[in-house]
Design goal:
204 residues, alpha/beta, BirA Bifunctional Protein, domain 2, eight-stranded mixed beta sheet, 4 helices, 11 strands
Length: 204
């Protein structure tokens, strides 16, 4: 079944979660696979972990926070960041979560190469990096082998939302973005327009 791509615009995190949960149920019933492309209103999220030190005291955060069913520590989502939520049937894709994560990284590495940015994986650290700077975060959840959550690529130059947390639990990390690396502002729509081709190359 061919992947379907839906541009969901800009959503609150709660609305984006509801969108995913409804599609997970459809995918379980029908096998229909969808990739949602969107931006979020400013929000912090963290996986279901006992150690929440990377988030810090939530009462001090400037935006809402959510604990969700993905792996990983705290991250920030907001305008200027492209979010992709692939709702894929991993029952038909080998039930290999490690491979799935590496494939998501590959989608981003190929996309960034198209913009002339050399990026890479870092052993033991999920996500995508430009030298020692992190440009994209990945965190996934699986419900009965249907994937949810996904990837977040920093596009705009403004990354102040990350200043209030320890991103991904990595102290001293430098976050970067597509626009910062290129020295010019790249539009969200330009990135959204290119992502489907790279997803189809990997998952189609």
């Amino acid at each position: 079944m061919r992947l379907r791509f839906v541009d969901a615009g800009r959503l609150t995190f709660r609305a984006g979660l509801a969108l995913q949960e409804a599609q997970v149920e459809r995918c379980l019933a029908t096998g229909e696979e969808v990739v949602f492309l969107l931006e979020h209103e400013p929000v912090y999220t963290i996986g279901r972990t006992l150690d929440k030190s990377s988030l810090g005291p939530v009462e001090r955060l400037p935006h809402p926070s959510f604990e969700i069913n993905r792996g990983g520590q705290a991250t920030y989502h907001g305008p200027g960041q492209v979010i992709a939520y692939p709702i894929l049937d991993l029952r038909a894709r080998g039930r290999d979560l490690h491979l799935y994560l590496r494939n998501l990284e590959g989608v981003l590495i190929d996309l960034l190469a198209g913009f002339g940015i050399a990026s890479q994986r870092v052993t033991g650290k999920t996500g995508v990096w430009v030298q020692q700077r992190k440009i994209a975060s990945i965190g996934v959840g699986v419900r009965k082998w249907i994937s949810m959550h996904g990837l977040a690529l920093n596009v705009a130059s403004d990354l102040h939302g990350f200043d209030h947390i320890v991103p991904c639990g990595l102290a001293g990390i430098t976050m970067t973005s597509l626009s910062r690396e290129l020295g010019r502002e790249i539009s969200i729509d330009e990135v959204k327009g290119q992502l489907p081709a790279y997803f189809e190359r990997t998952f189609g």
